[in-house]
Amino acid sequence: MGTAGVSSAPPPQSGAVGSWDCFETDAYRDPAAYDHVAALLAVQELLHIQELRLGFKSVEAGDLRYIYELDATVLPGRNLRVLDIARCRIKPPGTGADILPCLSVLRLYKCSSPTKDLEDVISAMRSLGTLHIECHDFYSYGDDNSSGDRFAVNYPSVTAITLVRLKLRTSKGIELDAPCLRTFKYNGQPVDFSVKSPVTELARVEIDLTPRPRYYDHPEKAWFDSLWQFLRNLRHMKILKLKVPNIEGIAVEHAHLVTLHTLERLEIEGPTDPSRRNDAATAIANLLQSCPVIHDLHIRIVNHDYNGMVVEDVSPSHFDVSLDLFERRHTKEIRGMIDGEHGSPVTGCRFNCLQNHLKNVKLQFVLKEMDSFEISLAKFLAENCMVFELLEIDDGKHNFLNHINLMVERWRTNALEQRKQMELDSAKSSKQRVK
């Protein structure tokens, strides 16, 4: 058993309205630690503070669900507006009770509780505006079976929610009731997601889906249902940032698409599988179809390992790349790139965003093969973005082609000339029919 010790600033003087940090060290369910924290929280001067950070850390605790059971009713709540808690289990108030009436920001890190207890605690904070829950362990004890329930909480006043790597221990997922929500961030494994009340004022959404553990020779579990559930329930957002296990996994049947009528900016990051180019093309088409009025598009294609985890891009040296491309400059492969003969990954499609709205496009990747999905996608965007003001292709290299950006203007010029010729041919055909 560790020895209880405290690392904290002195409590503020009477009348002060600042912040106070209290962190117990090496406290593993030590009665002395319990008594010490309770005594500190009862200090009269704490009634006036506006920010409180209370946490525990222990070299012996390991993966303990919590170290200290905190009774929310003993917190100095008269003026408290910001509360950070680490490695605690928060004991809920009585039924119908309100706590911390002025609290606007709550951050929980590596805390634990049954699902219903956390729901009751948060629902009792009537003025809460920002909620951050990270690495929370939802568990049950005794005869309590709440760990199998959906995490569903009523957030009438919350405008910002961040959920990071939750241990839900249930397949029933998350349900939000936050009609005033403005920003939402989720980082974790795919999960069922729904909203109880429409969220119509969303400014920004960030979804970072991490792959479930993958075992040798086991197929990757589908995660696209979870992604499209998020998009369907948060479809009124203006900015969307996605990180996905792979780009091609986004692809769905047309009937399952969601139209994001208010989305203005889309950022997407993920790897691609060279053997699934058609699926990756379908995924990009799905996104363009779902975002009819976006102004800004940023696509970053990264590398990943066998388990689907993103790894740092490693580019060959600029000199080696330049020399290799120069030596192959007369081959069909390189001439096709220079002359703009790469096929488009998305064919036979017309998208409203490309025709009328998309003005700023950035495509990032590390160039490794000339005949790649990334090159074809770059060409497709160059040829089909009709109103763009900035089209930036970052291939991660400086070589004799001086980035693919040298090709972009040629691809675009060729496409415009072809369209003009088609319009002239169409006009001639119309005149001939009139005659």
Q: How many beta-strand segments?
A: 22
What helical percentage do the residues reach? 25-40%
* Mean pLDDT value: 76
End-to-end Cα distance, whole Å, is 99 Å
Quaternary organisation? single chain
The fraction of residues assigned to DSSP E strands is 15-25%
The rough form would be described as: elongated
Counting DSSP H or I runs of 4 or more residues, the number of helices is: 9
Q: Which consecutive residue ranges, at least 5 long each, have pLDDT under 50?
A: 1-7, 11-17, 398-402
| Major sheet details | 15 strands, mixed
Structure classification = alpha/beta
Over the alpha carbons, how many angstroms does the gyration radius reach? 28 Å
List the main descriptive attributes of the protein structure presented here.
435 residues, alpha/beta, 15-stranded mixed β-sheet, three-stranded parallel β-sheet, 9 helices, 22 strands, elongated
Question: Could you provide a short overview of the structure?
Answer:
With 435 residues, the chain is of the alpha/beta class. Helix content is 25%, strand content 24%.
In terms of topology, how is this protein built?
Layout: E1 5-8, E2 19-25, H1 31-41, E3 51-57, E4 68-71, E5 82-86, E6 88-91, E7 105-109, E8 112-113, H2 115-123, E9 130-134, E10 137-138, E11 151-154, E12 160-164, E13 174-177, E14 183-188, E15 193-195, E16 204-209, H3 224-233, E17 239-243, E18 265-271, H4 277-290, E19 296-304, E20 310-311, H5 318-327, H6 332-339, H7 352-356, E21 360-364, H8 373-384, E22 390-394, H9 405-434
Helix pairs in contact: 8-9
